[in-house]
Amino acid sequence: MLKRSITAGSFVLAAVATILQSSGNAGAAEPFSKTYSECVEKAGGVTPAIQDCIADEHDRQDKRLNTAYRQLLSALPEKRKTQLRDVQRKWLAFRDANCGFYGDPGGGQAGRLAANECVVRVTALRAAELEDLKE
Questions:
Q1: pLDDT tens column, 28-61
Q2: pTM
Q3: Which residues contact 34 (CB under 8 A, 6 or more apart)?
Q4: DSSP the chain
Q5: Which residue ranges make up each domain of the chain?
Q6: Which pLDDT score is estimated for 29?
Q7: pLDDT class for 100, splitting at 50, 70, 90?
């Protein structure tokens, strides 16, 4: 059992390292803002500072998601509005459940970082998806 916990914890640490490393790289596929990447770089690996960066980026991406959702909703016929509402509710449930899985209880702070950054990443990707649907 101990071996499994170490393996799970190691997986979470590896996942967080990969996420944080990719956050510092500017790229077209990167969903995070430049401000977030700079914040994580300045945090220097300090968990509370990284959590603050994640919280700020979550606020930015959540606002972006809500704006994209409202704009798309207003542009749709009534029948499609109902569909979008249903899909968005299901997407939110999936996001929360999926990212909750990243929060491995044996992963400590690394698990919480992975779960929180998962929420921000998939929120940013969903915002981009809704923005693309409106175009």
A1: 457 899 999 999 999 999 999 999 999 999 999 9
A2: 0.76
A3: 26
A4: -HHHHHHHHHHHHHHHHHHHHHHTS--TT--S-HHHHHHHHHHTT-HHHHHHHHHHHHHHHHHHHHHHHHHHHHHS-HHHHHHHHHHHHHHHHHHHHHHHHHS-GGGHHHHHHHHHHHHHHHHHHHHHHHHHHH-
A5: 2-134
A6: 54
A7: very high
